[in-house]
């Protein structure tokens, strides 16, 4: 994504957020355990029509252009249990700017407003999704490919894929969220 397109998309997301009473973010991986700011409220939340998958090439945060790592993406199909995080009032632009710098360094994700079901009712939240048509979508990877990627301990600006996946699984488990697919993937990839 070219910088002008990325800035235009940011402005559209910011404008939409200003029309809402509260800014909610749907966290499904590292945004749960490494937030950019204090939340005024966090709720377990389920989104339908999307699932968490370690199927996005990362050439900045968890890898390099020469040796990409992997990060989680919210991909169409199924459902995903994560956290709806409410941003402090009056800090929408600042928080969105921080998120943008972290999640959109290359403009790969497709930010979307999605409906999150919580025990206190539904909220509209910003989520970072990835279409299967994206060149950064890995598709189905073999266990051998995952093992090779997990063995790379260099990674990118935020570390390597194995640490990221393990931290995500640990955090999900601490919240009572069971992700059997991730647990099995880590087991197979580190044998």
Task: Describe what you observe in this structure.
It contains six helices and five strands, in the order H-E-H-E-E-H-E-E-H-H-H. The protein has 191 residues and is α+β, with helices and mostly antiparallel strands. The chain has one domain: Hypothetical upf0131 protein ytfp. Helix 1 packs antiparallel against helix 3. The longest helix is centred in the N-terminal third of the chain and has 17 residues.
E-strand count: 5
Secondary-structure element order, N to C: HEHEEHEEHHH
CATH-derived topology: Hypothetical upf0131 protein ytfp
Q: Give the percentage of residues in beta strands.
A: 25-35%
Outline the low-pLDDT stretches. none
Residues in helices, as a percent range: 25-40%
Task: Write a compact overview of the structure shown.
This protein is of the alpha+beta class and 191 residues long. It has one domain (3-186): Hypothetical upf0131 protein ytfp, CATH 3.10.490.10.
Overview features:
Hypothetical upf0131 protein ytfp, 6 helices, 191 residues, alpha+beta, two-stranded antiparallel sheet, three-stranded antiparallel β-sheet, globular
Present the secondary structure layout.
Layout lengths: L2 H17 L4 E4 L2 H4 L7 E18 L10 E18 L5 H12 L6 E9 L2 E9 L13 H9 L9 H14 L5 H10 L2
Antiparallel strand pairs: 1-3, 2-3, 4-5
Helix pairs in contact: 1-3
């Amino acid at each position: 994504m070219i910088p002008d397109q990325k800035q235009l998309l940011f402005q559209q997301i910011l404008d939409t957020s200003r029309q809402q009473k509260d800014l909610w973010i749907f966290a499904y991986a590292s945004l749960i355990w490494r937030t950019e700011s204090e939340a005024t409220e966090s709720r377990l939340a389920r989104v339908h029509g999307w699932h968490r998958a370690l199927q996005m090439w990362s050439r900045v945060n968890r890898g390099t252009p020469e040796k990409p790592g992997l990060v989680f993406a919210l991909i169409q199909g199924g459902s995903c249990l994560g956290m709806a995080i409410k941003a402090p009032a009056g800090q929408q632009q600042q928080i969105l700017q921080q998120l943008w710098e972290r999640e959109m360094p290359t403009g790969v994700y497709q930010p979307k407003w999605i409906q999150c079901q919580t025990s206190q009712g539904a909220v509209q939240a910003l989520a970072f999704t990835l279409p299967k048509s994206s060149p950064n979508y890995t598709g189905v990877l073999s266990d051998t490919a995952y093992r090779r990627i997990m063995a790379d301990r260099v990674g990118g600006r935020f570390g390597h894929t194995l640490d990221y996946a393990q931290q995500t699984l640990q955090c999900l488990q601490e919240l009572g969220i069971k992700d059997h697919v991730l647990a099995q993937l880590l087991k197979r990839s580190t044998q």
